[in-house]
Design goal:
Layout lengths: L16 E7 L12 E8 L2 E5 L2 E5 L4 E4 L5 E5 L12 E8 L15 H9 L4 E3 L1 H16 L2 H17 L3 E3 L14 H14 L6 H7 L4 H12 L3 H19 L4 H7 L5 H12 L3 H8 L1
Length: about 290
């Protein structure tokens, strides 16, 4: 398995990096890097992990992330099946805070943008009402070069910093407590849960993957993620259930068991704990 490392994204011929990503699936490695990142999903579905937040994603999902916040867009299992013809596509911008010089964003005129950058340590989700505008700007940025590219990026960042449609993703006070040396251990845990959440997951098996006793692993996981391991598993299952509810192809009872829950009462209770709604209410609200 490829280790999940702190990424370093550099552009040798420009001050920031702009990429269109096309692949059979999104990068399956849980990672973080010292760059700001603006990312939008054009094609693909799955589960998104940002800081301590877990949500399903689909085309249109657009986020802005501050430096060093762990993240992962895990494509659905169908994207990894042998012979799959599915593909994912996204557009991403990476830049560092000093990409225009050490003091550029320290100027008085950048006060609002400074606050936006400071709050982006939790990540921002761009709400549906504003996504189309952001995505259009990103596509235009893909075609821009030189000074025009800088102007367009600064204009986009200014608009984002003043928009009420940028909502925080990770919980208030979230801090990345992961060390670069620990990412492979957490990658193993993420991979195991994402591959087995539809089944019963034994704590001792997961703890052994991390090279710990069950009790030590529980303490370690809570310290690093601000949630218990059982809460994490439940949120992964709920995230998958949300995706199935949005698709609307199965009954709530079918979705309950397909998502790894053993009883409908437990499913309803945990779903409401996580989303604030019952499965039926969630489905109606989305539609």
């Amino acid at each position: 398995m490829r280790s999940a490392l702190r990424k370093s994204i550099e552009n040798q011929v420009a001050s920031f990096t702009m990429q269109e990503l096309v692949a059979p699936h999104f990068d399956p490695n849980w990672h973080f890097h010292p760059h700001y990142q603006l990312f939008t999903v054009i094609e693909g579905t799955g589960t998104r992990f940002i800081g301590d937040n877990i949500q399903p994603f689909e085309p249109g999902d657009t986020v802005f992330l501050g430096p060093n916040i762990p993240h992962l867009w895990r494509s659905d299992p169908s994207y990894f099946q042998q012979g799959s013809v599915l593909q994912t596509r996204g557009v991403v911008v990476y830049f560092t805070e000093d990409f225009l010089g050490n003091d550029f964003f320290s100027r008085p005129e950048m006060h609002v943008l400074q606050g936006f950058f400071a709050e982006s340590v939790r990540g921002f989700e761009i709400q549906a009402s504003y996504r189309d505008s952001v995505r259009e700007s990103m596509f235009n940025l893909l075609k821009a070069n030189g000074f025009q590219a800088i102007l367009q990026l600064l204009t986009l960042l200014d608009e984002l910093s003043q928009s009420p449609d940028c909502q925080p993703i990770a919980s208030f006070g979230y801090v990345n407590n992961h060390k670069v040396s620990e990412t492979e251990r957490m990658q193993k845990v993420h991979d195991y849960v994402l591959d087995h959440f539809r089944q019963d997951i034994r704590l001792d098996e997961v703890a052994s993957l991390a090279g710990m006793s069950s009790s030590a692993f529980c303490r370690y996981f809570k310290t690093r993620t601000n949630r218990t391991f059982s809460e994490f598993v439940s949120e992964v299952r709920i995230g998958y259930a949300c995706k199935l509810l949005i698709e609307g192809k199965s009954t709530v009872t079918q979705i309950c068991y397909e998502s790894g829950f053993n009883t409908i009462s437990n499913f309803n209770r945990q779903f409401k704990d996580v989303t604030g709604m019952t499965p039926a209410q969630y489905q109606r609200a989305y539609r």
